[in-house]
Amino acid sequence: MKTIISKQTGDKRLKREKKAWKCDGIEKILRNIFIVVFVTFIAVQAVLTNDGTRDLLVRDALDGVPLGDEAFLFETCRMELKLDGMAGRPELKVLVNGAEAGNFSNGAVLLELKEGDVVELDASGLLVHTEVQISAVSRNLAHLLGRTVAAADGIVPVATAYTNK
C-alpha cells in the first residue's frame, strides 16, 4: 500500500512541475513582448520629433501655419505720463505690475502695456507733492486720457490697462 501512495504523489508532483514550466514559459513570452512593444513606442516617438521624418510617416497635412518668431494674441497699449507743471523728478518712479518701468528724469515716461497691466507711481523717495497726468494713450485706452494723479508718499495707483471699456 505504501507503494501506491508514493506513485500517486509522484504523478501529482510531475503535473505541478509541468504546469509551473508552462507558466514560466508564458511569463517569459509576455515579458519579451512587452519589452519589444515598449522599445518600439519609444523609437517611433523619437523618430516623430524630427519634422522631415514626420512628413514621411504622417500622410495628413497639419492644420494651420506654424508660428514664426513671435505671435501676439493681444493688442499692445501705449500710455504717456507727464509731470504736471514741473521739471524732471528722477526720484519718482513708474511701476508696471510691481516692476520699475521708468522714472521722470526728463519729465515724461512712455509705457508699453498689455491687457491687465497695473500702472503705479513709487513716490517713496519724493519730498514734494507732485501731480502726474496721463497725457497720451493709444486708441484702445482712450478712457484714461487726461486723468491726473497726485503723488506724495508711498505707492500710488494710476490705472489698469483694460482695453474693453
Task: Provide the descriptors you would attach to this structure in a database record.
single chain, 165 residues, alpha+beta, 2 domains, 4-stranded antiparallel sheet, 8 strands, elongated
What can you see in these coordinates?
This protein is an alpha+beta fold and 165 residues long. The chain folds into 2 domains: 2-57; 77-160, no CATH class. Helices cover 33% and strands 30% of the residues. The protein has 2 helices and 8 strands. Strands 4-1-6-7 form a 4-stranded antiparallel sheet, with no helix packed on it. The mean pLDDT is 81.
Provide a concise account of the structure shown.
This protein has 165 residues and is of the alpha+beta class. It is 33% helix and 30% strand.
Layout of SSEs?
Layout: H1 2-48, H2 51-57, E1 77-83, E2 89-96, E3 99-104, E4 108-113, E5 118-122, E6 130-137, E7 148-151, E8 155-160
Antiparallel strand pairs: 1-4, 1-6, 2-3, 2-5, 5-8, 6-7
Provide the gyration radius in Å.
38 Å
Query: How many strands, what sense, and barrel or not for the largest sheet?
Result: 4 strands, antiparallel
Strands, total number: 8
Shape: elongated
Strand content: 25-35%
Span between termini: 103 Å
Helix content: 25-40%
Strand order of the largest sheet: 4-1-6-7
Query: In terms of per-residue confidence, which ranges show pLDDT below 50 for 5 or more consecutive residues?
Result: none
Helix-strand makeup class: alpha+beta
